[in-house]
């Protein structure tokens, strides 16, 4: 397939209403959790993004029939189960690591390689492995091939995370759901997507309490069965479209999402001068005024400001009055979009973990290349508020997490096409 590009003509304020897609970071662990269930699982509000398709390929390889149509995925076991994931499937996305807990928990073994998705700097899996060991698995790593085994099944354990890792918390929840006895996770990640995964697992018969808090208690059950479940809305996609409205000076309504789930981002947009009104599962955003710089935006585990929204909000702030300071605490290499924004006329300086954005009056369209999922989206946000044409290459990164991105922007009156 030839590489595709987005061609964006900036300058039109976004306007209109958009239904927010299902959350990427929820649906990926939920699909993996379906590998632990008997019978049929129906996942609704499933986003049509390439990471979902990568998950489907893994599930098909593992012995499941997956039918994915109209944002609904139906997963059924074909009877034959496989516990090994080949390298080419593992490398398609970082989230493939989540199958470690799902497979070891349900089959007592798994063999896999290291997951892909290293574009944000080193992404070790030491916490995942240590947690699986605590639950009774033997784990070996020979030449990059990881083997987990628990001949007599996993057992409950008390696991104290030294950092509230999202993926590790999810992997423990999956592995412990079918383990013997009780597992307690201390210092668990509190992201809303963790609660969504627990909601799904509980509907399948799991006994998980406290998800969304720092202490999560999982009482192992003997069996999980399929269910019908609707994935929560994507708060990072919402932040991206709000940033696009802010960058272009528009006003939009997001349908299918409550303010609460986006609070840490919305409070920053409010400091930037955007106005929000919430009504019946919709958020109206008025971003017509000139944006103001924000003192300091520090990325933190939930409920702090999410690292995934850093790039898109930075893109909107390029054209603000005054200066803004970002501090990126989660990933080492998460300012890769900055060079592209500077090429478009932004004034940004990166010093270690900090990025200082001095607002400018105008951005100008340029030829840029998406570096990663959210970084690529940030370039589109900047392009929508820039004068002239922005051409973004390597948009496969954007397609990993945004459902029909060009369709969404077009619906809001933005000028974008895929070439
Ligand atoms: C998830 C999200 C990602 C988001 C991130 C932080 C999904 C599919 N992805 O990623 O979009 O940016 O949370 O909110 O949900 N770490 C270790 N060792 C480990 C695991 C993690 O050192 O074994 C470090 C990571 O390198 C990183 C930090 O912990 O610096 C946070 O990682 P984690 O919360 O695990 O993020 P992910 O689950 O990979």
Task: Give a summary of the structure in a few sentences.
The chain is of the alpha/beta class and 419 residues long.
Structural summary, described in words:
With 419 residues, the protein is of the alpha/beta class. The chain folds into 2 domains: 6-20 and 234-418, Alpha-beta prism (UDP-n-acetylglucosamine1-carboxyvinyl-transferase, Chain); 24-230, Alpha-beta prism (UDP-n-acetylglucosamine1-carboxyvinyl-transferase, Chain), CATH 3.65.10. The protein has 14 helices and 25 strands. The chain has helices spanning 24-34, 50-61, 87-90, 99-107, 126-134, 166-177, 192-203, 235-248, 263-271, 310-317, 338-343, 373-384, 396-399, 405-411; strands at 6-9, 15-19, 37-38, 40-44, 64-69, 72-77, 109-113, 138-142, 145-149, 158-160, 182-186, 207-209, 216-219, 224-225, 228-230, 251-255, 275-279, 282-286, 296-298, 323-327, 347-351, 354-358, 367-369, 389-393, 415-418. The strands form 7 sheets. Strands 23-24-1-25 form a 4-stranded mixed sheet. A hairpin with a 2-residue loop joins strand 21 and strand 22. Helix 1 runs parallel beside helix 7 (192-203), helix 4 packs parallel to helix 6 and helix 5 (126-134) runs parallel beside helix 6. It is elongated. The mean pLDDT is 96. The structure holds uridine-diphosphate-N-acetylglucosamine.
């Amino acid at each position: 397939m030839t590489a595709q590009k987005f061609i964006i003509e900036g300058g039109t304020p976004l306007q209109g209403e958009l239904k927010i897609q299902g959350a990427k970071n929820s649906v990926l662990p939920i699909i993996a959790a379906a590998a632990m269930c008997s019978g049929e699982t129906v996942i609704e509000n499933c986003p049509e993004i390439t990471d979902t398709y990568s998950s489907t390929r893994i599930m098909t390889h593992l012995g499941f029939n997956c039918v994915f149509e109209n944002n609904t995925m139906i997963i059924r076991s074909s009877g034959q189960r496989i516990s090994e994931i080949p390298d080419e499937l593992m490398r398609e996305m970082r989230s493939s690591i989540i199958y470690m807990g799902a497979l070891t928990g349900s089959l007592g073994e798994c063999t896999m390689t290291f997951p892909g998705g290293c574009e944000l700097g080193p992404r070790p899996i030491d916490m995942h492995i240590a947690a699986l060991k605590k639950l009774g698995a033997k784990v070996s790593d020979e030449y990059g091939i990881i083997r987990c085994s628990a001949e007599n099944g996993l057992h409950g354990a008390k696991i104290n995370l030294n950092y509230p890792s999202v993926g590790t918390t999810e992997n423990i929840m999956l592995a412990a759901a079918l383990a013997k006895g009780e597992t307690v996770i201390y210092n668990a990640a509190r992201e809303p997507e963790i609660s969504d995964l627990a909601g799904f697992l509980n509907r399948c018969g799991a006994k998980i309490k406290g998800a969304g808090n720092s202490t999560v208690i999982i009482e192992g059950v003997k069996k999980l069965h399929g269910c019908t479940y609707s994935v929560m809305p994507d708060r990072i996609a919402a932040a991206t479209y709000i940033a696009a409205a802010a960058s272009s000076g528009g006003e939009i309504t997001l349908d299918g999402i409550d303010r609460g789930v986006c609070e840490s981002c919305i409070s920053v947009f409010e400091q930037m001068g955007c106005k929000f009104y919430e009504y019946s599962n919709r958020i109206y955003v008025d971003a017509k005024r000139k944006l103001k710089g924000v003192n300091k935006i520090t990325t933190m585990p939930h409920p702090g400001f999410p690292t995934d929204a850093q790039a898109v909000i930075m893109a909107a702030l390029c054209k603000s009055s005054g200066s803004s300071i970002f501090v990126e605490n989660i990933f080492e290499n998460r300012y890769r979009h900055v060079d592209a924004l500077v090429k478009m006329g932004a004034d940004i300086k990166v010093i270690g973990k900090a990025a200082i954005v001095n607002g400018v009056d105008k951005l100008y369209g340029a030829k840029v290349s998406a570096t990663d999922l959210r970084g690529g989206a940030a370039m589109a946000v900047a392009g929508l508020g820039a004068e002239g044409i922005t051409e973004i290459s390597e948009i496969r990164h954007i397609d990993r997490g945004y459902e029909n991105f060009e369709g969404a922007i077009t619906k809001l009156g933005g000028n974008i096409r895929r070439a």
